[in-house]
Amino acid sequence: IHPGFGFLSENSQFVEMCEAVGITFIGPNSEIIDLMGNKANAREQMQKSGVPVIPGSEGFIETVEEAKEVANKVGYPVLLKAAAGGGGKGIRKVNDDNELTSLFEEAKREAQVSFGDKRMYLEKIMTNVKHIEVQIFRDKQGNVVYFPERDCSVQRNKQKMIEESPCLLITEEQRKELGNIAIKAANAINYVNTGTIEFLMDSQHNFYFMEMNTRIQVEHTVTEMVTGIDLVKAQVKVASGESLPFNQNDIQINGSAIECRINAEDPSKNFMPQVGKVRYLYFPVGNLGMRIDSDLYAGWEITPFYDSMIAKVISLGQDRHEAIEKVKRLLSEMLITGVKTNQSFYLDILKDKNFLDGKVTTEYLEQNFLPKWKEEHKDAAI
């Protein structure tokens, strides 16, 4: 069973059920999913393995008094996080002791409702950072490789919007350093199959472990484009007991790739989710270095019950400039009617000087780009 990148892909109970009846789950085993799915446990494991982590708590935080002690030690502002969290849920930004008192129980309740687990941990908020992640692949024989990093710094509400590879600001030496850190993390837990280790990179290019996703990710397409390697095909081979069909020397950067996530949402109305029937659909196809992943079709009814992402638009260029121009062309030619999407919003980001310079941080979209964009488009929100 291949679980994709949602629903059951990180559900250890489902994996245990597969294991119990002899069904091969294409991914890591249930123990690894449990270990790395709990963010506090994963953080503790990485510390033991010598992987640098964001300053914060060691293990779980049980009480608000304990949370205050850690917060004052590492310094405000901090992030209060659900240990079993994901998707931006169960997270609160806290600026002082008073806010921590008022938000602690609220965050625990949200975590319990969302994940069935109210345990929390705490990390210092790191500013002026990029979100950099490394895809790793390890087989049952212990062979392990890393792939070129992905820069996922363009985010809204801690949800990725644009992913690209490689990162414009990372040197080959830093790439190897980061890859070796990721390999150390994978070996430390005897990881099998593919996974992604997410880091924050500060302005001095220091890397700090954030979390590990024990599945194929939405943005694996960027890595496939820039390396020419079919990651899902390799997943099947490794799950069946075969050795990795490639080694580290086979993994080369062949240009630059970029992806935009198309969501059914209205940016002019604070990204309000959109529902309704897709009336007409046109995806430009057949162009070299261009790819659209979607199961959308005319007549499809978009409901509020699932994630709002309805397509991924990916391009590959000889360099970053060409990749950006190609993805702009795809976005300009693609047509979805009946439901409002964020398609045109990306065209505005892709021509912004800060984005073109590659210097954006995780705060760029909400603190720099969006205020200006909302002012320019305020009439559309009426």
Brief summary:
By secondary structure, the chain is of the alpha+beta class. Helix content is 34%, strand content 24%. The protein has 2 domains: 12-124, ATP-grasp fold, A domain (Dna Ligase, domain 1); 130-381, D-amino Acid Aminotransferase, Chain A, domain 1, CATH 3.30.470.20.
Q: Would you give an account of this structure?
A:
It catalyses: N(6)-biotinyl-L-lysyl-[protein] + hydrogencarbonate + ATP = N(6)-carboxybiotinyl-L-lysyl-[protein] + ADP + phosphate + H(+). This protein is a component of the acetyl coenzyme A carboxylase complex; first, biotin carboxylase catalyzes the carboxylation of the carrier protein and then the transcarboxylase transfers the carboxyl group to form malonyl-CoA. Its EC number is 6.3.4.14. This protein starts with 11 loop residues before the first helix and ends in a 6-residue tail after the last helix. It is globular and about 50 Å long. Helix content is 34%, strand content 24%. It is built from twelve helices and 18 strands. It has two domains: 12-124, Dna Ligase, domain 1; 130-381, D-amino Acid Aminotransferase, Chain A, domain 1. The chain has helices at 12-20, 30-37, 39-48, 64-74, 97-115, 172-188, 220-227, 231-239, 320-333, 343-349, 353-356, 364-376; strands at 78-82, 91-94, 120-124, 130-138, 144-146, 150-156, 159-165, 193-201, 207-213, 256-263, 265-266, 272-273, 276-277, 280-282, 290-293, 301-302, 309-317, 335-337. The longest helix is centred in the first third of the chain and has 19 residues, at 97-115. Helix 1 (12-20) runs antiparallel to helix 2 (30-37) and helix 4 (64-74) crosses helix 5 (97-115). Strands 4, 5, 6, 7, 8, 9, 10, 15 and 17 form a nine-stranded antiparallel beta sheet that branches. The chain has a three-stranded antiparallel beta sheet with strand order 2-1-3, covered by helices on one side. A two-stranded antiparallel ribbon has the order 11-12. With 382 residues, the chain is of the alpha+beta class.
